[in-house]
Please model this.
Amino acid sequence: MIPTLIVLTLLALGVGIVAFATRRPATRQDIVVDQDTAWNDPISPAKAVEADPFANAPAPTPPLIVEPAPADAIPAERPS
Model:
């Protein structure tokens, strides 16, 4: 009996939520149209050469190569 009441309560809650959400008509939103269409802005050529942002960067450093330690230099276990 209790599971039936739980299901009926949830069903009534769902119907109430749907009824509440759909009972009011949609409010009218004023649409603001952007008037700037850029019809008179200066144009730039499609293949304009931009300044290289890395032109004055320092030269790259060579990669650091670290040799692995020899196997006899690393103790396998600490003596107790």
Notes: Helices lie at 2-22. Residues 2-22 form the longest helix (21 residues). The two ends are 70 Å apart (CA to CA). The mean pLDDT is 80.
